[in-house]
Every structure is written in structure tokens, then in C-alpha cells.
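Q&A log
Question type: sequence-to-structure
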Amino acid sequence: MPESTDVPAEAPAEAPAEAPAGARADGKDEGDEGWRARLPSPIHPPTMAERGLYRFVRAALVGLSRLWFRLEVVDKDRMPASGPFVLAPVHRSNIDFFLVAALTKTRMRYMGKDSLWKFAPLGRFIAALGAFPVRRGSADREALRSCMTIIENGEPLVMFPEGTRREGDAIAEVFDGPAYVAARTGVPLVPVGIGGSDKAMPKGAKWIKPAKIVLVVGDPIAPPKGDGRGRVPRRVVREMTAQLSTDLQVLYDDARRRAR
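Response status: OK
Response body:
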């Protein structure tokens, strides 16, 4: 599974326009950049082999997390029982991406920095586990199109609403991207607090310590009524984002308290 991307989760004011595959925001073609030309495209539903690999790796990581971190999940029953959704966790550590795999056995998809695909075998491996590349310097619309395609394929999607790893006890800034994708596709937005991961592997650390970690699942935020295909007013997206920010702070405080 990939390291989380630092690409901002900002949302456009209206539905993303179509762009040619491989196009960059500055209009240059990346097709002649060697390894970048090998990035997997387009987003496709998982094969049986990919599902099997994900189940195996997930079981191993979750098992190790329970032993090494004494991993605890609170209110797991709030997770959607079926269908796609957008999972929106707090982000304080590079290990957050595999910790949230403990929340559901369903294969989830993650954004990854395109540089992770520079070594082709690694790229193929993490892609099979659900990662998809986001090109640094490309328009956010390209990433959001990929996110919505994943939801339309029936797969859950993990989007860190803070955009990148943060430090401190406060949820200071939450981007509109997760709320926008959930609203546009008509799926639940599920907030998750993660307590203790910053102690196990803080930003800048190279080693993982055996600290207690707790995940707390919040009530899913329902998308606005509709078929998920129309444009979503900016006001609705901002209201969902504001609620997500409030819920994340409550869940993060609870998770940190339980992880002490």
C-alpha cells in the first residue's frame, strides 16, 4: 500500500471537464518522460487476483498492527455495510493508510504520489493493492475524475481531507475534495479519528515504535439528495466540509484520549 499523497484535496467549483489521458495542467505531454509513461491508466475495477492479493496483505498488516500497536477500533458498526463510500481519516503519520484497512475487509483505493511508480515492480504491486497515481503539478480535476471513476466502479475510496500529514492536536484545515466527491457521486462520507499513530511514527521519523493506536469511526455524513450525477452547489459542498471538520475534531480528540 502506498504512502499518502501530498496533492491537495481541493474541489473545483463545478464538474471537472474531460482532459486527454497523459495531459498536464501546463499543456505538456508526459508521454516521453520514461517511467511516467508507464503509469497505470485508466482506473479499472479490481481483478480476482488483485482482490486476493489485497486480502492477503490486508490480513497480514492488520494482524501485525494488533500485535505491535495493540490496535483498537471503536464504533466499527458505523461503517457502511456495502457499496462504495468515501473514507475521510485524520492524517498524522505515514502508517495511517494501512491502519484504516482494519475498518473493512473490502478493498479500498488510495491516492499515491506518481513517483512511487518510478520503480516498475513496486508500482505494479501497490497498484494491485488499490493505489492509483496522482501526478504532481497536474490539475486537481484530473485526480478528482479518477476518484469519481473509482466510486462509479463500486469501490470505497480513502481521501485524507487534510491533504497531507499534519502535526498537532487541532484539525486546522480541511479541503473540499472528499465532500465534493461524496456529493457528486451520492455516497456516504465517513469520518475517522486516528489516535496514537503520530507517536508510533511521527512526521520525519524513519522507524515505527510500538505505540497504542485507536481508530474511532464517526457517523457517516449523508450526501445531498439526488442521483449523484448533477452539479453540486458550492454551498452544499462547503456545508459538508464544515460538518466533516467538526466531526473529525471530536473523533480525533476521542481517539487520542483512548490511545494514552
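Response note: Helices lie at 48-68, 96-99, 120-128, 140-152, 177-185, 197-200, 234-259.
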